[in-house]
TrEMBL record:
Lineage: Bacteria, Pseudomonadati, Bacteroidota, Cytophagia, Cytophagales
Species annotation: Marinigracilibium pacificum
Gene designation: purA
Binding note for cofactor: Binds 1 Mg(2+) ion per subunit.
Protein name in UniProt: Adenylosuccinate synthetase
Gene3D superfamilies: Adenylosuccinate Synthetase, subunit A, domain 1 (3.40.440.10), Adenylosuccinate Synthetase, subunit A, domain 2 (1.10.300.10), Adenylosuccinate Synthetase, subunit A, domain 3 (3.90.170.10)
One GO term describing the cellular component: cytoplasm
């Protein structure tokens, strides 16, 4: 049995939550392998909208185990709120949610540090969600962080106080004002709340699932172009968002990876600062934002919008070993008579190719576009590939030829039912 991986191929917000929810009935286990509450996975079904931040998106499907892996950084306060919202929606995840003991804890002071660091950057802000993600990963790499398993130790309070003292010395240097006692009240209450849930050695559990022929879907957060190594550095997240991150974030070997489902929007969006070659700062970009309801699920910030960037998509496909492509939000392009996709970059020295420059944040590339006829019709109600307008199929055919990977799923609406699967997806 293999671990299938589902991840985003752009700058995040591709629609991973919806697709995990659609695929989850085919799997025994859904496991998050990186990121933290800066992720916002939106799911819609039965007339209701749900937003998850740390809990895997298989939680709404009966009989599916959900694992928060060791590669995740976890905010207990936000996790408690997530669980309580699920309870309000009639979903009790006490028996279907497990948390790796090796997942890093986000402390209140991590969030304060995040705000202090971001404020100090002035007009060079990276667009942090201020959830404490970066500082928590910093402590992990510095080998001073606290993990979920530490909650169960007798000297947790001493470990906590020691790390907080270190954080406060940094905050003092930044002359950052804060009220820690009030934040700590919620933190400790959430810690006690989480003790009701299963803390596990997730690397053993995941591999035992595979040994007993149980199917596992690894769920990524953010997007490939935000990867700490291969994204548009320094405007990136703090973890490895690639397929390789599923191995280190869950404790499975590379030989255990099966299908890699890569998700992309039929156009591009980005939240926060950073380079965006195909960004449209015009009426077309505003139209994409309005029709696509492009506002961050975690922060509510308006997303920057632009045409599909195929060189960047091909780059992400290469790095992840994508075996199947899923195209999301095709319905957002319903009202466009003409569409454009970027096929090449013209660099500052005049050369034209498909390669992302070493430092996309300081290099200027001019996108070279190819135009397509828009479908200019409503896709609502279509449920099979053959019924899609010829313009949609021509658009998909070009993408498939360009990146060399088949598009096997097309989303034409936010609801789980508004999903067209071209062929049976292996599980």
């Amino acid at each position: 049995m293999k671990v299938d991986v589902l991840l985003g191929l752009q700058w995040g917000d591709e629609g991973k939550g919806k697709v995990v929810d659609v695929l989850a009935p085919k799997y025994n286990v859904v496991a998050r392998f990186q990121g933290g509450p800066n992720a916002g996975h939106t799911l819609e079904f039965e007339g209701r909208k749900h937003v998850l931040h740390q809990i895997p998106s298989g939680v709404f499907r009966e009989g599916v185990d959900n694992v928060i892996g060791n590669g995740v950084v976890l905010d207990p306060v936000i996790l408690r709120k997530e669980i309580e919202k699920l309870l309000d929606a009639g979903v009790d995840c006490k028996n279907c949610l497990s948390i790796s003991k090796k997942a890093q804890l986000i402390l209140p002071t991590h969030r304060l540090l995040d705000a202090a660091y971001e404020k100090s950057k002035g007009d060079k802000k990276i667009g942090s969600t201020l959830k404490g993600i970066g500082p928590t990963y910093q402590d992990k790499i510095a080998r001073v962080g606290l993990r979920i398993g530490d909650i169960l130790t007798k000297d947790f309070s001493q470990k906590y106080d020691r790390l907080v003292k270190h954080h406060e010395s940094i905050l003092k240097a930044y002359e950052f004002e804060y009220d820690l006692p009030e934040l700590e009240k919620d933190f400790y209450a959430a810690i006690e709340f989480l003790k009701q849930y299963k803390f596990i050695e997730s690397e053993y559990v995941i591999n035992d699932y595979l040994k007993t022929e149980k199917s596992v879907l690894a769920e990524g957060a953010q997007g490939s172009l935000l990867d700490i190594d291969f994204g548009s550095y320094p405007f990136v997240t703090s973890s490895n968002t690639m397929t390789a991150g599923a191995c280190t974030g869950l404790g499975v070997s590379p030989s255990r990876i099966g299908e890699v489902f890569g998700i992309f929007k039929a156009y591009c969006t980005r939240v926060g600062s950073g380079p965006f070659p195909t960004e449209l700062n015009d009426e077309t970009g505003e139209k994409l934002r309005k029709i696509g309801n492009e506002f961050g699920a975690t922060t509510g910030r308006p997303r920057r919008c632009g045409w599909l960037d195929l060189p960047a998509l091909k780059y992400a496909v290469m790095l992840n070993g994508v075996t199947q492509l899923y195209m999301m939000k095709a319905d957002v392009l319903n009202d466009f008579k003409e569409l454009k996709v970027c096929t090449d970059y013209k660099h500052e020295d005049g050369t034209i190719n498909q390669e992302l420059p070493y430092d996309l944040s300081t290099s200027t590339v001019e996108p070279i576009y190819r135009s397509f006829k828009g479908w200019d019709c409503d896709l609502e109600g279509i449920r099979d590939f053959d019924s899609l307008p010829v313009e949609v199929r021509e658009y998909i055919d070009f993408i498939e030829e360009y990146v060399g990977v088949p598009v096997t799923l097309v989303s034409i609406g936010p609801d789980r039912e508004a999903t067209i699967i071209k062929e049976e997806v292996p599980a």
